[in-house]
Amino acid sequence: MISMNDNGDILRKQLIRGATGIAFFQVINRFLLLLLGVTLARGLGTDGYGVYSYAFALLTLLVVFAELGMPTLILREIAAYQSQEDWAHMRGILVRSIQVVILSSIIIAMIAALVLNQIDMWNSIAQSETLIWAVILLPFVALSKVIVAAVQGLQHVVRAQSVEMLVRPTLVLLCIGTIFYFYPDMRVPQYAMAIQLVIAVVILFLAGGLLRRYVPQQIQVTPTKYQTHQWLASAVPLTLIGGAGMVNSQTDILMLGFFRTPGEVGIYRVAVQGAALVAFGLQAANVVIAPQFARLYAQGDYDRLQRLVTKSARVILLAALPVAVTFILAGGVIAAWVFGKEFMQSQTPLAVLAAGQLVNAAMGSVGFLLNMTRHERDVARTLFITAGLNIILNFFFIPLYGMTGAAIATSISLVLWNILLYIIVKKRIGINSTAFHAAKGR
Q1: What residues contact 172, with CB distance under 8 A and at least 6 apart?
Q2: Using CA atoms, how far apart are residues 151 and 157, in angstroms rounded to an integer?
């Protein structure tokens, strides 16, 4: 006979094993995206890479609003319906979420096309065609994310994430690399974005195949039930939170593209990619240790929680420090060697962004710590504050200092985000999240 403690141990091991698998996927995904960035930068040059980066940043932002929070909602609801064997509502949310996302994607794509036309973002053939492909790509990306989330909700997390984190970037890298190598005339941003569209269709079919494989057969013979108003009411705040988070991550590139040249956008995009490597240890660690945060908090074991938070923050900082120092001192040289000599100009923005990410790493897992201890509303409020500040700062600094101004605005917003969440963590759960806390005990 298996005891409750044994069940808890089994569940804990499953959580850790699944989280470790996702962390491994993140490492491979980061490597693949870096290779893709190098391929695009070397193939397209600063101007072409800037056009592509701007269009992709816009696509990334629009996808969040096209999803209407459905990926997070469907993951949560399908997991609940499966545990309750409520096949009627599971079928309902699958059908309704797909319908909603298709409709919202088409509407947002049409609005985006009209707005871009009004603000004169079609001032070159490369720019206009790349933006058109990005707008067409929108429904396919949004819909595949919903389907992948549904597969996750059915407790096939690793298989679902492998489609987005491994298969998609691998196929894009192989296709773009092959075409750029054998057909030099096709080294233009619009073809690169068109390839993204082709791969998005492939990913959509692969995700759909996974869903058909793992969806319970009971829903195929069960009458459909809907709770549309309730689902949409839950999806609205999720959309707002996701939108604020994406504004924080894409504002600098979008506003830089609005005020400055595509060449500067391309150079700055390389700086962003480099700086992201500084905090990669934080992102990977969050996935692995987040379940432990929730477990220790639920048990009321604050001493062990504090030790775990402190030790993880120190490991994260030790991993981030040499990367940040290297980029601060020689980021331009490294960028020129990896991406091409014209990207030497990324030195200053890369140094500023790397410094901001180093602070981010030193402050520890503040956001995840609050989310795992049921204080997600505090995270959402802080996210809205810093997103608004980020827009204001970019609007002020980019016209004055260009790429460096975008880096300054982004780093200030990131540091403020961490400081505010650090204060909230201390207030709500009495934990010092930083790497500098003198933890007691073993």
Answers
A1: 36, 195, 196, 199
A2: 7
Q: Are 59 and 137 in contact (CB under 8 A)?
A: yes
Contacts of 311 (CB under 8 A, 6+ apart): 439
Residue 141 CA: distances (Å) to CA of 101, 106, 147, 248, 300:
10, 12, 10, 20, 41
Predicted TM-score (pTM) of the model is 0.87
pLDDT band at 15; cut points 50, 70, 90: low
Cα→Cα distances 204→29, 136, 226, 308, Å: 18, 14, 24, 39
Q: Which one, of 148, 22, 12, 11, lies nearest residue 78 by Cα?
A: 148
Q: What is the pLDDT of residues 349-382, one digit of tens each?
A: 999 999 999 999 999 889 888 877 878 788 888 9
DSSP-based three-state secondary structure for 279: coil
In this structure, the number of other CB atoms found within 10 A of the CB of residue 102 comes to 15
Stretch (H or E) spanning 288: helix 280-299
Which residue has tokens 């693949």? 32
Give me the helix-helix angle, 403-429 and 228-259, nearest 10°: 140
